[in-house]
């Protein structure tokens, strides 16, 4: 008498399992063509971004690929960098690093990184905290330039920018230093 490797009660289940596998049709998952667009790279001007959710923009990355507030606009102009609108102000996107979850932006028209300063006044800019979350190491940076009335800073945070009229001097403060500078200015006026 030969011994079976499998117990008898399991052998009785094999025909049932085979019938079930044959009778139930296989299910296939198809790729939704709409979402295939979401994996495309965002190209605008000299900037080619391998970005994903929550960013979207133009035809290559439709709105359903991202989240409201993260629209990147290229204006159909291949020589421009994309912009993003936040709190009724437009910012030029200089870079996005998905791995580090950082975005480098500058107000449109204000390009301190490019070596010049604008001749217009800029309003205080506050970034929407519901769209972005910040780590403990993030600090508020306030930039002052072309100021009148003796509003200057002494220290390492000074900078100068070339202009048509010569040189524009400025300085920046980090965190609460801005508040104390403004108080000093108003008390000396």
TrEMBL record:
It is a single-pass membrane protein. GO terms for molecular function: polysaccharide binding. It comes from the Eukaryota. Pfam families: GUB_WAK_bind. Residues 1-29 form the signal peptide. Keywords: Membrane, Signal, Transmembrane, Transmembrane helix. It is found in: Membrane. InterPro entries: WAK_GUB. Its main location: membrane. One of its GO terms (cellular component) is membrane. Residues 38-106 form the Wall-associated receptor kinase galacturonan-binding domain. This is Wall-associated receptor kinase galacturonan-binding domain-containing protein. It comes from Citrus x changshan-huyou.
């Amino acid at each position: 008498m030969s011994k079976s490797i499998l117990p008898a009660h399991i052998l009785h289940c094999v025909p049932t399992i085979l019938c079930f596998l044959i009778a139930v049709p296989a299910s296939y998952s198809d790729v939704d063509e709409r979402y295939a667009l979401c994996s495309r790279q965002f190209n605008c001007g000299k900037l080619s971004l391998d970005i994903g959710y929550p960013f979207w923009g133009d035809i290559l990355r439709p709105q359903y690929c991202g989240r409201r507030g993260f629209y990147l606009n290229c204006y159909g102009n291949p020589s421009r960098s994309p912009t993003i609108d936040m709190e009724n102000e437009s910012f030029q996107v200089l870079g996005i690093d998905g791995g580090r979850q950082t975005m480098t932006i500058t107000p449109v028209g204000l390009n301190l990184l490019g070596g010049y300063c604008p001749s217009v006044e800029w309003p205080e800019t506050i970034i929407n905290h519901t769209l972005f979350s910040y780590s403990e190491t993030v600090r508020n940076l306030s930039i002052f330039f072309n100021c009148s009335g003796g509003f200057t800073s002494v220290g390492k945070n000074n900078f100068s920018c070339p202009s048509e009229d010569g040189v524009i001097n400025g300085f920046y403060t980090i965190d609460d230093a801005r508040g104390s500078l403004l108080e000093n200015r108003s008390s000396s006026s």
